[in-house]
Amino acid sequence: MEAEIALTVDGTRRSLSVDTRTTVLDALREHLGATSPKKGCDHGQCGACTVLVDGRRVTTCLSLAVAHDGAEITTAEGMADGRELHPMQRSFLDHDGFQCGYCTPGQVCSAVGMLAEAEAGWPSAVTDDLTAPVELDEAEIRERMSGNLCRCGAYSNIVAAIRENVR
């Protein structure tokens, strides 16, 4: 069964016809030509497919496109402002927060979403005081980013890149 949906991807509204079983990841990559979200595990375990959907981080391999009809999707490609990199992208470069780069777009999107969650006061499994403002120390960052795997092991540099963006 096909469905007509519209997604705003990186600021551009796009209409497409998809099988109702199509994931957001497959809609982005196969129908719309977006290459930054990667198909890693295809089971929601690695985070390589992470993008921001209406400002919240989402593993797109587990999300059906029809469930996000009308959504605004930001990929790592769409974070830059023209030729000016997003501060998180710049930090990943400055701190060598990648090696092979396969996971990097998902890591960057997840980091941006995670900072917004922390700023909103959302606790994590390692948050000590649930009534105090969230303090993003290394343990908090590692826990909040635990859904994004890096096979190369660039975690210390990824954490450093994220810490540079903590307000």
From TrEMBL:
Entry-linked Gene3D superfamilies: 3.10.20.30, [2Fe-2S]-binding domain
InterPro entries hit by this protein: 2Fe-2S-bd, 2Fe-2S-bd_dom_sf, 2Fe-2S_ferredoxin-like_sf, 2Fe-2S_ferredoxin-type, 2Fe2S_fd_BS, Aldehyde_Oxdr_Iron-Sulfur, Beta-grasp_dom_sf
Protein origin, superkingdom: Bacteria
Protein name per Swiss-Prot or TrEMBL: Xanthine dehydrogenase YagT iron-sulfur-binding subunit
Functional pathway: Alkaloid degradation; nicotine degradation
Pfam family, one: Fer2_2
Organism: Halopolyspora algeriensis
SUPFAM superfamilies referenced in this protein's UniProt entry, alphabetically: 2Fe-2S ferredoxin-like, CO dehydrogenase ISP C-domain like
Taxonomic lineage: Bacteria, Bacillati, Actinomycetota, Actinomycetes, Actinomycetes incertae sedis
Annotated 2Fe-2S ferredoxin-type domain residues: 3-79
PROSITE patterns the UniProt entry points to: 2FE2S_FER_1, 2FE2S_FER_2
Molecular function via GO: 2 iron, 2 sulfur cluster binding; metal ion binding; oxidoreductase activity, acting on the aldehyde or oxo group of donors
Key words of the record: 2Fe-2S, Iron, Iron-sulfur, Metal-binding, Oxidoreductase
